[in-house]
């Protein structure tokens, strides 16, 4: 079964406690939390205080995705806020190996995200150190975008690398995940499905999550 990580970028921020209650009652195992700085991506979302508040509202895994420049400056702060998984972008991390080690030293799982144009081959030297690779299947910065079809091949290529290296890291797909493409993604090798509008705009979010999990 897939791990489903509803993306709170698509939640109703005016009813955040109710949205948390809804996800807590579902089969979703993770919260996916996108932190954007308006520099690495052309949007600004939410930051450390919101994540600290969400930590108090759930016992589920907080999967924090940093779409920011200089992520190394904030590792301690996100650990203190309660993040369980901290993902940085390869494109924003000059000293990637060092950042991965710092994340782990703070007791979190370490993830690396790749933008759609970035080859999975660039992870060859760090794949055994990673707990998660997040493949962006849309251009990062905004929710509700169309899924990029090339992602399926990237998943297969990444899965082959993971197996060949003996790594145990998970493959996460972020962007444009729907009930229509979820099974194709898991068949290709995806482990974690990030779903924003698909979940929060659903007439029955709990059933949608259940179906995504079965993909």
Question: What key attributes describe this structure?
Answer:
alpha/beta; 8 helices; globular; 215 residues; eight-stranded parallel sheet; 20% strand
Helix coverage percent of residues?
A: 25-40%
Overall pLDDT level: 96
- The sequence of SSEs as H and E is EHEHEHEHEEHEHEHH
Q: Name the structural class.
A: alpha/beta
Say what oligomer this is: single chain
β-strand amount: 15-25%
The total count of helices amounts to: 8
Distance between the termini: 7 Å
The biggest sheet amounts to:
8 strands, parallel
Low-pLDDT parts are none
> What would the principal axes of the Cα set say about the shape?
globular
Instruction: Output the radius of gyration.
Output: 16 Å
Q: What's a concise summary of this model?
A:
The protein is of the alpha/beta class.
Describe this structure in words.
The chain has 215 residues and is of the alpha/beta class. It is 33% helix and 20% strand. The longest helix has 15 residues, at 151-165.
Describe the secondary-structure layout.
Blueprint: E1 3-6, H1 16-24, E2 30-36, H2 48-57, E3 61-67, H3 75-81, E4 85-89, H4 96-105, E5 109-114, E6 132-136, H5 151-165, E7 170-174, H6 182-188, E8 192-195, H7 197-200, H8 205-213
Parallel strand pairs: 1-8, 2-3, 3-4, 4-5, 5-6, 6-7, 7-8
Helix pairs in contact: 2-3
